[in-house]
Every structure is written in C-alpha cells, then in structure tokens.
Amino acid sequence: MSVELDGANNIVKTDTISEVTSANGVTIDGLSIKDGKLVTANSVIEANMSANSVDSDSYVDGSIDTAHIADGQITVGKLASGVGFRPNVNPLIINGDMAISQRSTSVTGVGNADSGYHTLDRWRFSEGGDNSTEFTMTQDTDVPTGKGFANSLKMDVTTADGSPGSGDAMFLQQRFEGQDLQLLKKGTASAEKITVSFWVKSPKTGVHIVELQDSDTTNARNVSISYTIASANTWEKHIVNFPADTTGALDDDNANSFEINWYLLAGTDFTSGTLATTWEARTSANRAVGQVNVGDNTSNNFYMTGVQLEVGEYTSATIPPFQHETYSDSLTRCHRYYEELANQTYSMVFSCYSVDTAYLQDSYRAIKRTTPTITFTATGVGGLRAYTSGSERTLTNVTSDNRTANAVSFQINGASSPFTAGEAGHLNNTSTGGYYTADAEL
Q1: pLDDT digit of tens for each residue in the chain (442 aa)?
Q2: Helix (H/G/I), strand (E/B), else coil: 404
C-alpha cells in the first residue's frame, strides 16, 4: 500500500481506501475518514475518485469493501444497482411483484358492491357509487421485459360504462398497519416525503391518479398526484412523489391507518374540484381530478407490477431498485393477513369429549394481525372426514370453537354417536379439497 499525506494531514495519494485504517482527522478531498471508513453516504456519492481507487462492490453502514469502480465515479445509480446497497429489511409494499395469489388466480364479475380481496394477496379492489363497470381480476404473466418480474395484476373490463355516475369511483388499493409506518414520522415537524414507484400498462393515455390516505385522522387526510400515460397498452415505469405531512400522526397499532389508491375511474363527485397535491382534510371533489375512465370499453386491460414505496424523495435516476423477496418470504408476510389451511391431504389429531363431540386445535403458519375470521369451503363439514378406531365417521358439522391470532380450536360433531369419550382420532380433508381460511385482512 502507498499513502502520501500533505502538511495538513490530508491524503494526496493512496492505492486503496479499504486499506486506510487511520484514526479520525484524515480527509480525502474533504471526505472524512473515521476508523478506516468513509463517514457519510452523501460524501461517497459525490466523490470523484481515480480509477482503481475504490476496492468495493457493496456500500454498507458507511464502509466500502472489496470491489472496483471502473470509471472513477461513484454514483447513486451504481450504488443502487449493487448487491447490499439496501438494508436487509422487508419492503413496505407487500407482494409488490404480484407473485402471491392464495385465493384465486382469476375472479370474474368484480365491480359494484365488490370491494374486497379477490385474487392477489394484499391487493384490494375498492369501489363506491353504483357504477356498472365489471372486471375480471387476474394474476397475469404480461410483464415489462427484462425487469425481473414474472407476474402482474390485470384488470380486464368485461362490462363497460362510458359515463360513470357522479358518486362512482373504482381503484386498486393497498392498506397498511399504522405500526408499520411510524418511520414516516407523519404528524411531526420531521415528517418524511414519500415516493411510490410502479410499472403500469394502461389502455388509456392521459392523466391517472395515485392517492395517499391517512385513515387515522378525524375526517381523514388525503393527497393525490397525477401521472400521465404517454402510450396506451405499453409498459411504463412511473415514479410519483408525495409531500410530507406534518399534521396527523398515524396510530401505532395493527389497524388500518394508511392507504395507497390507484384510480381506474371516478365520477364528478371526485373530479370537480382542484387536485389535492398537498395534504388536506379529505375533500371528495379534489381526490381524482383529471382521472381517465379505464372502464369505458370491454377491450380495455389495465396491468400493474413492481410496486414499491420509499421513504424520501426520489427521481428515475436515484430511485432504489425494486427489492425482490423470495416467494417463501413474501408468502409468509401475506399469511399475517390471510391463509388457507388443511387444503392438502394431511391429518389433524382431535380428542373425543363425548359420543358426538370432539375437539381439535390447529396452528396457523403465521401469527395473524388480529383474531381472524374462520371460514370453511363448504357449509358444515367443508369436505373434511373424521377417523377413529380405524373407521371413517359421519360428521354433521365442524365449527371454530375458539380463535386467537395464534391458533384456532374446532368443535367436531358426529352423527349417530360415532365417537367414544376419551379416545383420539384424526381429521382428514377429502379429495374434493376441503379446507378452511383464516382471514385477518385490513
């Protein structure tokens, strides 16, 4: 290694930064070195270093280790594209790559009075008014080329309405627990700006609206930003910047505190005012000004994927890369809100309480957000069969007897006294796919 210092103890020449182990007080063109590390990320980004001077492929905790920046420039883009640039934490958007779809991969007739979760996990269809537009909501394989995505959310218009009523609105939505967004510092003087980035393929050119909504503040608070589709039926990446909100803190709890809405259509009750590009107490007329009608033709298909939410303000040049998760990790996060259990052939052991009643306890794969709603795939036994003493027993009902966020117990009833008090048995699902769901969605 070769290091030369000038009279002010500044480095004027060095082969590698990673070998500098000097204590505080050494500088490189104004960049401070502490314990052998560059102190700030901004300093690294702004540095203009000679070729071969940086021996690093990852920027972690203010340090640069072991690789090489070829052209002598360290930039946000290069850091963002490198493995290890981002902290090893989960992205704020869940299932932003549209990989998880536990309920179904396609549901028809999604429209009026159909607000809720239908296909892709954590992606809610919301509507208001009495619009006749209907969609088939699908997990699709049409994706932007070469961006690392395998799936998208598709809204295929099957019943069109070219003239939405004044109170009509339809949008795609993701909801958040307040305790997961305390890092936004909303309602304080240190409130953070927010950037939402996504890939979209719309059948309509022109103005589309993305909206943030604070559901905790009395009467709610909203801010809406437009993005413009330049070319119909073409994948485009859009980055939408939202201002910070120093009013109205989010509750630190597991309830629905915050929502992001992607509008598909909106009536005049939502479009007749001035778009709320700064946070304000919710005024319906200011929420979706300029929004095109995606539902006006049955040939229309709307797609979205690669959705991310970032704390801070970013541009196309500085936005961090989409943070891909493994399928397993993403599924586990979705299980906090919804999962299907006993949907494969396996046994659950129960104990017989009396000649016609037995009890069983089953655990979820993930702790739920709150005590879930338990639903069987069919009324009564829901495709389940009980076996005791080596024989199949006829069941009349299986109901959830007690539920928590961690587990559920069932009461099993049999016909014609099939059980013997004190004995054990097991409950199997049938080949028809009997199972139950645990739903704790926001």
Answers
A1: 455 556 665 555 555 544 444 444 555 555 554 555 555 444 443 333 333 334 334 433 344 433 333 444 444 443 444 333 355 568 999 999 999 999 999 999 999 999 999 999 999 999 999 999 999 999 999 999 999 999 999 999 999 999 999 999 999 999 999 999 999 999 999 999 999 999 999 999 999 999 999 999 888 999 999 999 999 999 999 999 999 999 999 999 999 999 999 999 999 999 999 999 999 999 999 999 999 999 999 999 999 999 999 999 999 999 999 999 999 999 999 999 999 886 555 578 899 999 999 999 988 999 999 999 998 875 556 667 888 988 888 888 888 889 999 999 999 999 889 999 999 998 877 655 667 899 999 9
A2: coil
Q: How many residues does the chain have?
A: 442
| Rounded-to-integer distance, Cα 307 and Cα 325, Å | 13
Judge contact between 129 and 165, C-beta under 8 A.
yes
Which 8-state DSSP code applies to residue 193?
P
Q: Selecting from 3.20.20.10, 1.20.1560.10, 2.60.120.260, 2.60.120.10, what CATH number does the domain 106-332 have?
A: 2.60.120.260
Q: What is the residue extent of each domain of the chain?
A: 3-81, 106-332, 338-439
Give CA 44 to chain center in angstroms: 31
Cβ–Cβ under 8 Å, residues 151 and 99: yes
In this structure, how many other beta carbons lie within 10 angstroms of the beta carbon of residue 9?
A: 10
- Looking at CATH, the fold of the domain delimited by 338-439 is given as Immunoglobulin-like (2.60.40)
Q: What is the rounded CA–CA span in Å between residue 241 and residue 247?
A: 18
d(CA 333, CA 147): 23
Q: Whose CA is closest to 435, among 4, 285, 427, 198?
A: 427
Provide the token pair at 231. Answer: 């070319």
The kind and range of the H/E element at 80 are helix 76-81
d(CA 441, CA 175) in angstroms, rounded, equals: 9
Nearby residues of 130 by Cβ (< 8 Å), 6 or more positions away: 112, 165, 167, 168
DSSP secondary structure, 249-298, as one string: PPPSSSSEEEEEEEEEEE-HHHHSS----S-EE--GGGSSTT---TTS-T
